[in-house]
Design goal:
This protein is an alpha+beta fold.
């Protein structure tokens, strides 16, 4: 097989590659990738953390800690009774059930709390 070496073709391919990368970046920044089902996220993720509920503070709150048990951090604070924390597929949020009286709500908090 013979490869054609053409400097003009090399320049055109370079421009197309730059345009493709720029298009992906712009789509990610504008939120289009998420609309298309492709997550674009650059913030904190919690795939390497243990997420759990504890009442150590007097109320049931969501906490995270490192896999070795260090770095315990309270992520929520509120009047709801919290249960069933789950990491979202993108890893940037933690979804959970919050109960206020007899009403339950699906809630979420960022990977670093909030």
């Amino acid at each position: 097989m013979r490869l054609i070496r053409n400097p003009e073709l090399k320049g055109i391919l370079g421009i197309l590659l730059i345009a493709l990368v720029l298009g992906i970046v712009l789509a990610g920044v504008s939120g289009k990738l998420e609309q298309w089902g492709l997550p674009w996220f650059t913030g904190a993720r919690v795939f390497d953390k243990i997420i759990f509920v504890s009442d150590a503070s007097g109320t049931r709150e969501i906490y995270s800690m490192n896999l070795d048990g260090s770095g315990r951090k309270q992520l929520t604070k509120g009047a709801y009774v919290l249960s069933a924390p789950a990491i979202t597929p993108a890893g940037n949020r933690i979804a959970f059930i919050g109960m206020c009286g007899s009403t339950s709500h699906v809630m979420a908090v960022g990977a670093n709390g909030g």
